[in-house]
Design a protein that fits this description.
elongated, 253 residues
């Protein structure tokens, strides 16, 4: 079960890369901010931020100027990606809301504060064992901000899906589009659950990937995220046809 959980986490990262690239290619055609922000955000977190952070924490680089620089760069990229998730939700669901724009500005400011706090805390230790307890509060804050991004987009997506569902009953909406909002909402809330497991492990003083139960829970949440992303962005024709048939809509020619 633990190995299956790790495999699910890996599949989520791989799908995040595929979805991010797909959205960037779409943004190249549409020139729209939502596709650009989500695609860039996913790639910043999955492809650049987390791997670069991990490189800066390898045994030979821990508590060295070079290691701190690499870790800081990766962390900045990852936090920028998290901020872009908020931008996506703002532009897609609340483009005219002043409070949503203010929230995005506040989030970026808080992410900057978290970056500074974590970098200062990580400089007060000679080994990883000394560094981790000092950086844990900042790490929890960052994971909570990530959960906030997914919670917001998930709730907005499900609310919008409910509106489309009423229009679908009148034949005024595309059932595939309605299903995609459902899948996006489900993937976002599963990501919130994953973040909650990480925070719970950190609060208990454990490394999330070092805790067998946490790995299983994270794997389950990751599996939901991966499946939802796959069906939303890379759906098989059979799946799309089934969605249309269930809604009583003829298949597209």
């Amino acid at each position: 079960m633990q190995s299956i959980g790790l495999l699910a986490l890996g599949s989520m990262g791989a799908l995040g890369v595929l979805v991010g690239v797909r959205l960037l290619l779409l943004a190249r055609q549409t020139r729209q901010l939502p596709e650009l922000s989500m695609g860039t955000g996913l790639l910043c977190v999955a492809v650049l931020g987390i791997p670069v952070c991990a490189a800066g924490r390898t045994p030979g680089l821990v508590a060295t100027p070079l290691g701190d620089a690499i870790f800081g760069a990766g962390l900045a990229i990852a936090l920028f990606g998290i901020g872009l998730l908020y931008v996506f939700t703002w532009r897609v669901f609340r483009p005219l809301a002043g409070w949503a724009r203010a929230l995005v500005v506040l989030v970026f400011a808080s992410l900057g504060v978290a970056w500074i706090g974590l970098m200062v805390a990580s400089s007060r230790g000679a080994t990883l064992a000394e560094i981790l307890p000092r950086t844990r509060p900042w790490g929890i804050a960052m994971v909570a901000q990530t959960a906030g991004a997914f919670a917001w987009t998930g709730i907005e997506s499900l609310v919008y899906r409910a509106r489309l569902q009423r229009r679908l009953a009148l034949g005024l909406a595309d059932p595939v589009l309605v299903n995609r909002f459902l899948l996006w909402g489900a993937s976002a809330l599963a990501a919130v659950a994953l973040c909650a497991v990480v925070v719970a492990s950190m609060l208990l003083g454990r490394a999330p990937l070092g805790d067998p139960m946490a790995r299983i829970a994270m794997g389950a949440a990751s599996a939901v995220v991966s499946l939802s992303w796959y069906l939303a962005f890379l759906p098989p024709e059979r799946y799309v046809r089934r969605i249309r048939e269930r809604a009583g809509v003829p298949a597209a020619p």
